Amino acid sequence: MKIRNDVIKVYKDVHIWVGIVSGLMLFIAFYAGAITMFEKPLERWATPPSALAPPPPIERADELREAVLARHPQAAKFHAVVVQPTAEMPARVVWREPGKTRRDFTEYGASFAADGSLQVEKLARAQVAQLVDTLHQLVGLPFADAVARPIMGAVALLYAVALVSGLIIVLPTLVKDFFALRLGKNIKRMWMDVHNALGIVSLPFHLVMALTSVVFAFHTPFYAVQEKVVYPHGLPWGQHAPAPLPGPHEYPLPADELLRRVEAQLPGFEVYSFIFREDHGQLEASVTGLDIRYGTRGRTYASTHLNPYTGEVDPHDLPGHMEPWDATVNTFFMLHFGSYGGNAMRWLYVAMGLAGAMLFYTGNLLWIESRRRKQRDGVVPGQKRSARVLGCLTVGVSLGCVIGISATLAATKWLPGQVDDLAAWHEGIYYAVFLAAVAWAFVRGAARSADELLRLAALATLLIPLGSLAGIWGVGGTWNHPGTGFAVDATALAAVPVFLLLAHHTRKRMREGHADSVWSAKQEAAVEPDAPPRGMAASK
Amino acid sequence: MNAWMVLLSALSGVAGAWLLYLASPQQLWLARRPSPRGLAWLGSGCLLLSLALLLSMMGAMAAVASWMVLAMLVWTAAPFVAAWRARQRRSS
Amino acid sequence: MSGKAATGNVRRLESRHWFGKSCAGVLLGFGLAVALSGLFAWLGPGGIEGGGGKTQFNMWLIAPIWAGVLSFVFLFRDSLRAWLWLGAANLAAFGLLGALRLGMG
Known about the structure:
heterotrimer, A: 540 residues, C: 105 residues
């Protein structure tokens, strides 16, 4: 396809600048996003063992519910019967006590002790999986949600602009260079091909991520503006059927019977839990679970109303049974969250996420590489510094995020035995390591720090399974959930040689690559005479 | 969802995407490319089979999305794997 | 656009107007996205009382339109043209939306 040269030139500038502004935040969003695809297994792995007695069978769930409600009547407002209790949800019956805000609540779980008495425990669901997810949602920014979310939305808009401008730039050579990967003497050509290989075929994925993220950031103001400008009588949400009233001789069905009836109505739907809400004596129930043939608008589960007296499911909120508009909107969420196709799909999303992170990383490499070439004919010291600064930032921020996440995950098994405020500690560890890595990159320069930080990443990641290993022997309050946590440890272990291999290649490039590059050890020694010493120049 | 059917749809999807990569003029996996037209037909056939299998098992949007993500991943990885092999071939 | 380039009588597009164009893209692009999503809400299948699913869909529409305008705003020759054309598009779209609200609401 032919496009005017001046148009290409303008869109190159657009692409370069939106890329520089948003690239590193997008790296964090994608790396953390890849990890958060396995939010639930991570949470399971990271939650300390419960002191509750093993959950009673689901046939006794109602006995337990009644015992809980007799002792803790406030639980009636929101309690759940868990179908498959797991490490992070270790009780058959759990309930929520509200906190200051709607999202702030405390979870309790109950079981029967060996002597048949009621046992209650405040659930200690791990915080670290939430931290990774928050990093993903807020592109790694350490600000309050109200500040970071609009910034994330702006980054998502820039990301969309970067995708369109990138596409415009490659359109003239799209067909000719499709799948081209020319590894050779021309480093810029090589990074260009790598960047295109990562970006072009996955464009649909990236467009979905960019546009859904704009909505995730701005849906509240979007609705508010539309309510004022578009709709005559407020936002039309449609009618919700009121909760069913029990007939004269109807009583809520026991959980095992509800399970049987739901499974009969919804083949392919795996039931996770039944939620009960009692308000002014009226009982409402819903069922949560997932049908991986359809995905869901939630990150990990779907939920729909259920008549607790008959077990009849109201399927209109359920993927696969929705009206066309709802199904379409459900698709948007599903495509972002990868909540369809089960674990196989989640692994593919991990790979797509990591490839996306590399897309942004190589974008910055390209910028540095093209600056390097321009400097040959006329030396402009400012440019040189900018390339060096961006090199340090790229290495420090990306690897800082990688090491920070590994470090805070590695601390997971040790913290509960030592400290109280786990969320604050996990966040503190992440940001301390992250900032230290960025500072280190500026002190040591891009090339050296890339090698050192990659080796540190390998070490920090190796520490993750070591915490579980310590747990097998019960050292220092650590734990290991047999079976379920193994995948987390194995994944971390598999990442260690990858980081070491990357470090090896970085060292090789530092020794054998072009000398006139921020990635060369020789270059770092050779500072131009009129520039201030390297460390100082970079740290400004 | 039958695990064997899932496996079959995944394998035919990977094979189809891979064959289409081999059919492209820029492919580096094979030293000499056999008839690109044959590869393209065979690849498209495999991809369509994969889509048909997925559509028979999942909701339409989930099936198409799974299919596309798989193809995107294969096409993202293929140039790298092939370039690596081309380099091995050159050095030997 | 390639046809015009061949004749060579078109002023070349330049990057230096980026700030004015970006502002037009952000502000007027958002306005246009809201107005067009509103037109879809009224005229699209199901009409203005299309139920909760459609209400959500209408909101989702803002993102692609806004991002699209912001992406293509750099094709305007200069900032003034971007503001004028997008301003006119906003006026037209909001005018039509107002008329619909008066006529159908």
